[in-house]
Automatic annotation (TrEMBL), chain B:
<dbReference type="InterPro" id="IPR036388">
    <property type="entry name" value="WH-like_DNA-bd_sf"/>
</dbReference>
<feature type="domain" description="RNA polymerase sigma-70 region 2">
    <location>
        <begin position="28"/>
        <end position="94"/>
    </location>
</feature>
<dbReference type="InterPro" id="IPR007627">
    <property type="entry name" value="RNA_pol_sigma70_r2"/>
</dbReference>
<keyword id="KW-0731">Sigma factor</keyword>
<dbReference type="Pfam" id="PF04542">
    <property type="entry name" value="Sigma70_r2"/>
</dbReference>
<comment type="similarity">
    <text>Belongs to the sigma-70 factor family. ECF subfamily.</text>
</comment>
<dbReference type="InterPro" id="IPR007630">
    <property type="entry name" value="RNA_pol_sigma70_r4"/>
</dbReference>
<keyword id="KW-0238">DNA-binding</keyword>
<dbReference type="InterPro" id="IPR014284">
    <property type="entry name" value="RNA_pol_sigma-70_dom"/>
</dbReference>
<keyword id="KW-0804">Transcription</keyword>
<feature type="domain" description="RNA polymerase sigma-70 region 4">
    <location>
        <begin position="131"/>
        <end position="178"/>
    </location>
</feature>
<dbReference type="Pfam" id="PF04545">
    <property type="entry name" value="Sigma70_r4"/>
</dbReference>
<keyword id="KW-0805">Transcription regulation</keyword>
<dbReference type="InterPro" id="IPR013324">
    <property type="entry name" value="RNA_pol_sigma_r3/r4-like"/>
</dbReference>
<dbReference type="GO" id="GO:0003677">
    <property type="term" value="F:DNA binding"/>
</dbReference>
<dbReference type="GO" id="GO:0006352">
    <property type="term" value="P:DNA-templated transcription initiation"/>
</dbReference>
<dbReference type="InterPro" id="IPR039425">
    <property type="entry name" value="RNA_pol_sigma-70-like"/>
</dbReference>
Length: 358, 187
């Protein structure tokens, strides 16, 4: 009825088109803008602009000093690679090989979420004595930095690097409360800081995983009756939502897929459609490129699933120089070139943390 | 005769032959956030999805900002990213049932009156239903032209069409939409 009043049926003259245009204009003004998001996103973008500026400066500096050295390195590196390829008889092989065996040992069970490798595989963040988060380069035996100091009673139960390597997600369990913190690391312009992303009573949060642009974090939420659910919290928009039932979520590099574990079996969900593909028995899925993931089998091996094939092709991936002990977890760094390995020897309570590269 | 392009302090005039966008990313963000957010909120039913897409658009834009030539309007460039992000979202989201959440909600302008808000809400939902009866091209042209507030030339650039083709699509779409309003079509 209102339409007929607004657009009388008197032919398609310019007058009625003008009425329609003015109606469209009115509706355009009626669509609200999320100003809260505008403010938050601006802060995030300004931070990223600073990071890009610093990266650019670093690149310029190293470009100037490194030209001659690069030529030398390329030549000698090429020869070395050629030699290695001949030695191993592995032309074009992409198999990861352990470069740093036993970077550290952790004393307790269930340590898999307590350690993570940064984007380019150069720094390991880990939780020590459940109270402190520290960082260490694989070549150093001592920690180089204490990232977070506990401020009251809670125990840290999981740590995860953001894809850009400037932030850490840290889970804290304090009596009945479970908290998910975002820790921004210190740089030359500002000290480290942390902010609370999620706090909930009566549940256990865990296994955080950052999405493609670090704009959200998926994590496990275990309710008091033992149900494990995967939730996502936006790091920019104060929103969170449930995705699926399961645990150990892991975003694919392009953010299109989410791998997770349900009933000790690895699953992959297409996030937009919700379509779930069930793979095999295993835990701790981790993506080694946009459509391929690895996971650990119950007998301590690493398998790879090629998701671009239907059904996905699954095969065992060997890891060179892995040493003794069953593999518990293998987690790729964000550049997908380094692998953080958690191993456990039979009868031992200690877990060995090593780093492999390809 | 001066041929060199001069860098200006303020926003460039888009009619100038020697167009040069001198503003930095944060200034452009301040100006274009509202238009991009509004455009995506108009195109996607779920406002959370629209806000996520807005975030993605500006993160992508920042990463690619060095590729922006500055000699063409920023509006065309940012809306090409916004439109492609939307198309990509819709392609991935094809099988998801439509969320009926209304997108006019808590963040409304404080000058609004509640009864007017409800009325506009209904109008917007009706418009969206009617837009869905148009062709994909017609929908793209109308939303970019009237909700993103782009000029014909900018819509043409975003969609990779000629200006005359955009004008023709726009003309037909408006008349079709007008007929729907007259008949009270919704199906």
């Amino acid at each position: 009825m209102r339409d007929q009043e607004r657009f009388p049926n008197d032919g398609y003259d310019e007058g009625t088109i003008a009425q329609l245009l003015s109606h469209l204009q009115e509706l355009r003004r009626a669509v609200p803008v999320n100003y809260m998001l505008k403010e938050k996103l601006k802060k995030q973008l300004l931070q990223r602009i600073q990071e890009l500026e610093q990266e650019r400066k670093r690149a310029q500096t190293s470009q100037k000093s490194g030209k001659a050295r690069r030529l030398l390195l390329v030549t000698s590196g090429g020869l070395l690679l050629l030699l290695l390829a001949v030695c191993f008889g592995m032309w074009g092989d992409n198999t990861p090989s352990v470069r740093h065996y036993s970077v550290m040992t952790l004393a307790t069970d269930g340590t898999e979420p307590l350690v993570d490798l940064n984007a380019d595989g150069t720094v390991v963040a880990y939780v020590e004595d459940k109270r402190v988060v520290k960082s260490r380069e694989p070549d150093h035996s001592q920690s180089q930095g204490t990232l977070v100091l506990s401020d009251g009673g809670g125990e840290y139960t999981a740590v995860a690097w953001s894809n850009r390597g400037k932030q850490l997600a840290v889970v804290e369990q304090a009596e009945e409360f479970s908290r998910l913190w975002i820790v921004s690391l210190a740089d030359e312009n500002r000290p480290s800081s942390k902010r609370l992303l999620k706090e909930e009573k009566g549940v256990v949060l865990g296994a955080p995983s950052w999405s493609q642009y670090d704009e959200s974090i998926a994590y496990t939420r275990q309710t008091s009756d033992g149900t494990e659910e995967i939730w996502v919290s936006s790091t920019v928009a104060m929103q969170d939502w449930k995705l699926v039932e399961g645990t150990q979520p892991e975003w694919s590099p392009d953010g299109r897929l989410l791998a997770f574990v349900k009933q000790d079996t690895v699953h992959v969900m297409e996030v937009r459609s919700g379509a779930v593909t069930k793979l095999e028995a295993g835990v701790w899925p981790s993506w080694n490129n946009d459509d391929s993931l690895t996971f650990t089998t119950p007998d301590g091996k690493m398998k790879q699933a090629q998701m671009s094939q239907d059904p996905p092709e699954i095969r065992i991936v060997p890891i060179r120089r892995l040493g003794d002990g069953a593999l518990v977890k293998a987690q790729w760094s964000s550049d997908r070139n380094h692998l953080l390995l958690t191993q456990k020897q039979k009868g031992e309570t200690k877990t060995i943390i090593s780093i492999a590269s390809r | 005769m001066e041929m060199a392009i001069k860098r200006s302090e303020g926003p460039s005039t888009e009619s100038s032959n020697q167009y040069f966008e001198a503003r930095d990313f944060s200034e452009l963000y301040d100006e274009y956030f509202d238009r991009v957010n509004r455009y995506l909120r108009c195109r996607v039913r779920n406002s959370w999805d629209a806000d996520d897409l807005t975030t993605t658009v500006f993160l992508k834009a920042l990463e690619k900002f060095e590729q922006y030539s500055r000699t063409s309007p920023f509006a065309s460039w940012i809306f090409r990213i916004a439109h492609n992000t939307y198309v990509d979202f819709m392609r991935k989201n094809r099988e998801v049932p439509v969320d009926q959440e209304m997108f006019v909600g808590a963040e409304a302008d404080e000058t609004w009156q509640p009864e007017r808000l409800t009325l506009l809400n209904e109008d917007i939902r009706m418009l969206r239903d009617r837009l869905e009866l148009l062709t994909q091209d017609q929908r793209d042209v109308l939303t970019l032209r009237y909700f993103a507030d782009l000029k014909i030339s900018q819509v043409a650039e975003v969609l990779g069409k000629t200006e005359s083709s955009v004008k023709m699509i726009s003309y037909r779409a408006l008349h079709q939409l007008q007929r729907m309003y007259e008949r009270g079509d919704n199906q």
